[in-house]
Design brief:
- Its EC number is 3.2.1.55.
- Belongs to the glycosyl hydrolase 51 family.
- Homohexamer; trimer of dimers.
- This protein is α/β, with parallel strands linked by helices and 495 residues long.
- The chain folds into two domains: 113 residues, Golgi alpha-mannosidase II (Immunoglobulin-like), CATH 2.60.40.1180; 363 residues, Glycosidases (TIM Barrel).
- The chain is 23% helix and 26% strand.
- The strands form seven sheets. It has an eight-stranded parallel barrel, surrounded by five helices.
- Helix 3 packs across helix 4, helix 6 packs parallel to helix 7 and helix 7 runs parallel beside helix 8.
- The longest helix is centred in the middle third of the chain and has 28 residues.
- The mean pLDDT is 97.
- Bound molecules: alpha-L-arabinofuranose.
Length: 495
């Protein structure tokens, strides 16, 4: 067993930019994400809000520089009829949210509410269109409603509802999980459905046209990606999605807070799987699109556990521990390192659902460890990728092995090099040597760690886990020596 962890900057003439859209988020009409999460209503006098959306959430997301927000689903998207969510709120029909708890959805948060929120957040909307139970006309109308500047039936309707200028929404999902909740389609059938829908979605008024993103594979369904890449003309296809959750076992996911090392190790195995999935889906995409014009869009990722005791099983409410910080740090490193093909990703989900960055309870709001990882990593957004050669020890558990360290690096517009590092080993610190490509004057850093991997921020102790200064990196002549503690995330700035 050696302590031989090394990082070298790989020589490369390539200047791949890490798209900021890798740091995207996802807000579905699910449980307490929108209602009693983001949206508390315009009439709420106890929780400060802007057009009904909590100000504390707005400020927290602004601090992350969130680049895009996916909405309204998820599975919900393929049941959603957007015209139910426009016009005077008192006239909007109530529907049943059949995927998530069979609760009544009063449609009080609709297209204007979402797109105005995106403007407040200075983030790009990513709308998932209803392909499963909608129609081609309905989706074409939605595009016209939000994007068309001139006179048309839909832009007139938008003006009637109080919005003069179009929002110019670029990112559109053409269905969601078409192989499952989006219609249980076979890929051969979905490609024809996709071709038809995409044909009628007009890009008029949007610079460069729309980015139409096909509902992608679940995990290792390579046949799905192959069929899409082969059979959809690439002028209709700007992105192909991929969904992968770090779930131990769909039948028994385990508690989000009470877990032992065997469960932790399995979660890390599932999380590392993302590397293999991206490599293999990319290989298929490279075969049909060697110039890499079609993006891989990982528009759902994150940890998924049993719901917190006493909460609605259909609401997917879970706590967020240092285990989730490991998932976040590792996955974001993987996406960064594949930035040539992965141009967008969306953590599931933003508030009160799955691996949330924010949890709320009445007036209170907390930031989870995952939030802090996103905040520490925001320096990579739109920075130039620095490919790394990484040698890492293994994290061993009962005769099984995983790479202990994951890392990625980039250079920002000011010329500062950042390296993000995750050590998933529960027991050992890792001593890492970074060999230098040029002379640096200083190294500084921040770290996210806690005493126990099961630790989390609670409403009683909201700041138990937050980033602190990192003193474990020393600049020497022959490189930087770093000691990364067990289950911690470190981000370094080299100047
Ligand atoms: O994120 C929760 C659900 O997971 C989404 O609605 C669906 O797309 C996926 O199965």
């Amino acid at each position: 067993y050696s302590q031989q962890n090394t990082i070298a900057f790989a020589k490369s003439n390539d200047t791949t930019v890490i798209s900021k859209h890798i740091y995207g988020h996802f807000a579905e009409h699910l449980g307490r994400c929108i209602y009693d999460g983001f949206y508390v209503g315009e009439d709420n006098t106890t929780i400060p809000n802007t057009n009904g959306v909590r100000n504390d959430i707005i400020n927290a997301l602004k601090a992350l520089n969130i680049p895009n927000l996916r909405w309204p689903g998820g599975c919900f998207a393929d049941t959603y009829h957007w015209k139910d969510g426009i016009g005077p709120k008192e006239n909007r029909p109530a529907i049943v949210n059949t995927w998530w708890g069979n609760v009544t959805e009063d449609n009080s948060f609709g297209t204007h509410d979402f797109l105005n929120l995106c403007e407040v957040l200075n983030t790009e909307p990513y709308i998932s269109g209803n392909v499963g139970s909608g129609s081609v006309q309905e989706l074409a109308d939605w595009v016209q409603y939000v994007n068309f500047e001139g006179k048309s039936p839909m832009s007139d309707l938008r003006r009637q509802n109080g919005r003069e200028k179009p929002w110019k929404v670029k990112f559109w999902g053409v269905g969601n999980e078409a192989w499952g909740c989006g219609g249980n389609m076979r890929p051969e059938y979905y490609v024809d459905v996709y071709r038809k829908y995409a044909t009628f979605m007009s890009g008029v008024g949007v610079e460069g046209g729309l980015d139409k993103i096909a509902s992608g594979a679940s995990d290792a369904d390579y046949r799905w990606t192959e069929t899409l890449m082969r059979d959809i003309p690439h002028n209709l296809l700007q992105g192909v999605a991929l969904h992968h959750y770090s779930v131990i076992d769909w039948g028994s996911k385990g508690s989000s807070t009470e877990f032992k090392e065997d469960q932790y190790f399995k979660t890390m195995q599932r999380s590392w799987k993302m590397e293999e999935l991206i490599q293999k889906h990319t290989e298929i995409m490279d075969k049909y699109d060697p110039e890499r014009k079609v993006d891989l869009v990982v528009d759902e990722w994150g940890g998924w556990y049993d719901v917190m005791q006493g909460t609605n099983p259909g609401f997917l409410y879970q706590q967020n521990t240092m285990r989730d910080a490991m998932i976040a740090g590792m996955n974001l490193n993987i996406f960064n390192n594949h930035a040539q093909r992965v141009k967008m990703a969306n953590l599931a989900q933003t508030v009160n659902v799955l691996q949330a960055v924010i949890l709320t309870e009445g007036k209170k709001m907390i930031l989870t460890p995952t939030y802090h990882v996103m905040e520490m990593y925001k320096i990579h957004q739109d920075a130039v990728l620095v490919p790394l050669q990484l040698k890492t020890d293994n994290y061993e558990y009962k005769g099984e092995y995983l790479p202990a360290i994951s890392a990625s690096a980039s250079i920002d517009k000011e010329g500062v090099t950042h390296i993000s590092l995750v050590n998933i080993d529960l027991h050992d610190s890792k001593n890492i040597t970074v060999s230098l490509d040029k002379v640096y004057k200083s190294v500084s850093g921040r770290i996210l760690k806690s005493a126990k991997v099961q630790d989390y921020n609670s409403f009683g102790d909201p700041e138990k886990i937050k980033p602190t200064d990192f003193k474990g990196a020393v600049l020497k002549k022959d490189g930087i020596k770093i000691e990364v503690p067990p289950f911690s995330v470190v981000v370094l700035a080299l100047k």
